[in-house]
Amino acid sequence: MTRARARTAILGTGCRTPENAVIWLGGRIGVAENDKTAVEQPWRARTAILALGAFVVGTDGFIIVGLLPEINRTLQVSTAAAGQLVSLFSIAYALFGPVLAALTGRWPRRRVLVTGVALLAVGNAVTASAQVYWLVLTSRVLAGAGAALFIASAVATAAHLAGDQRRGRAIAMVTAGATLSLVLGAPLGTLIGGTWGWQTAIWFVAGVAAVVAVVIAVLLPPVRLDQGASLRQRIAPLTDRRVLRVLVVTLLAFIGIFLPFTYMSAVFASAIGGEQARLALLLLVFGIAATAGNLAAGSLADRYDPRRVVIGATTGVAAVFLLMLPIRETFVLVAVATALSGVVSYSVIGPQQHRIIAYAAPGGASLVTSLNTSAAYLANFLSSVLGAVVLTAAGSAVPLLPIAAAFAAVAAFLTWWLSRGGEVVDQAGKQSAAAK
To answer: What global pTM score does this model have?
Structure first.
């Protein structure tokens, strides 16, 4: 597609002004011109490498939760202090991701990806070898920054390699790596930690991250996105109201999603009956269903308007959480509802990435995807704080379900309301959805 034809198509599909069209075109033209090359390349195999990196990042984020009791005893700190290792990782991810994405915008993607996963490996190596609490905290900040840098660039790179027609599936493959860490990575790491100590589990993550860095350096082609854009152009999406709208929806949706997930043991205490095996089974069911939902949403985002996928998913989240209220004491029904919640919950992030990439400035795809994942991590942090306040005030975890449903419902409503004037989406390389 030539620039003139692309510009004509865009101006006829919901962009109200030439300036908007240029912004949209700038975020896309590098991919559009390379569609033929991207399709001819073995994009699935290369995206699978990026998914492996996302798997390591997800494992690092989840594994600490299962190791906190041992970390608490080893470092001789309180449970609350040990819990800050999780909070600092999430905050570092949320804050440093967009900054690092903007600063490394001119770098070749392979260098960015290797740097990100290498920082993750170094951060975990310091965590495993440190003997003092403050150094362990610092290492979690370093690991969080590396994780954020990797994921944002991995999503943008996968979208580029796959081309316009396969963008949703490529994004889903990368995020599936993170959801698979719920099923395989975190349980395996926790098992290693329980057998050989928590430091061994962290060394395991560091070792896998180092291997991934080498694999990416050797096998990933030297992908270069737009290299001519200035830093000012790259950070332009920060002032774009369309980008901010997508971020608000991601934040609200994932506050709702993470509320019941974070406090699952309390919400379903009657059904679990104090049996750790039942809780582990629920987590496994959620992880498998989340992976399936994520992959399905990627295909749907390629075939239909990603906005509709987000509305359907967030509406589904609200409905499932309300359904959980009357059945929360029956384990079999809870397991079924947990599977449903996994499918709809992880059908949100991929289409949201699909939507936000459409508003990227030249060379700014990594920045906008970083902003979106940062919003999700910030939601994770806020949900834990909000959940603690609700538990303290109400003395019960049951109110978390209707509150979470309300957040998801508001996210669905805002997705519809804020894009009534039409939203540019990429469907088969050239399509826009008008407001319905």
So the answer is: 0.69
